[in-house]
Amino acid sequence: MFLANGLGFANLVPRFPEIVVHLGLSKSAFGQAVAAVGVGALVAGLAASWLISRLTSARVASLGMLVVALALLGAGLAPSWGVLAVCLLIVGGTDSIVDVAQNAHGLRVQRRWGASIVTSFHASWSLGAVLGAAMGQAMAGAGVGLGTHMVLTAVALLVISVGPLLAGWFLPGHDRADRAPERLEELDDTPGVRSATSPRRARPVTILVLFVVGLLCAASMFPEDVAMNWSSLLLSEQGAGPGRVGLGLVALQGTMIVGRLVGDRIIDAVGQRAVIAWGGALVTLGMSVALLLFSVPGTLLGMAISGAGCAVAVPVAYSAADDVEGLPPGLGLTIVSWLARLAVLLAPPVVGRLADNHGLWVALAYGLLGGLIMVTFWPVLRRRPAGS
What we know:
disordered C terminus, Growth Hormone, Chain: A
């Protein structure tokens, strides 16, 4: 499921320069179209917890990918800016629900496993993104039509995402079944169940924790957003040919795969907060390298370093959100994912407008901001009292 989720949108990334030329879009107009992904996520994202509670995370994730596949096909065939924006709106809205559902199911598996394994699932997402970018790059380099390319992508997504559901490979039962009894008791309204922490005292702390985790989650997504939405345009402007413009995404996601494969062991060894702190430092370094060198090799090197830095930050944030006490299954994940997407939503039109006036180096500065936020705010998460 994670593999399919990463594979889909990444197939479209190497075709962005072609779409921009075909539709006659400015960088600002392109940024506004991409912003529709974030708008869709904000509109639909909060429905994830409700859907999971009624359909289970497995069904929501699999069926949601059906919608994503069709919307990506529509985006590839879009004859105008409006159709492109609407299709990306649907992609963003459905993907936000799928994202929460697949992570909720992955965390169910982690609870049964008894150790940190969620970053390994995110490694599958990164692998899917690399394969998708490579597939899109190969199709573009070979001159395959965008419509044919996206039809093949949609078929692949349907097979990978719906097949496991039909085969019964997901965990059975409701998502609530894998939660500890004491966590479920906190959802009870009876006075004798809520122990020493009153709802009025717990609520502000819970809100603060979710806000900080959401901010860190959003910041760690900034470099991914740069690679996904802007690196192909940046590399094209720096002189990369059609067969190479997808390498920025490949470079970032390639090191993310490695980081996520070893991430669980690193988290167990040094802790989640140290991982975010050092990750932020690497993102800051990588984006600084890309800005200072500002060339195809410099951009690729910077993306690779940044990918290592943000590799495990999102799964760490999701895990922390899911562990916030007193919340129904999937609600912490839903809120943090929504907050992160709210922050990311504001970026594409702003970056696009600034890039029109000042150049695409602005996109790299946006990624640098993400690293600085991670470096700045990890101590806040560190000082959070145990059990809060």
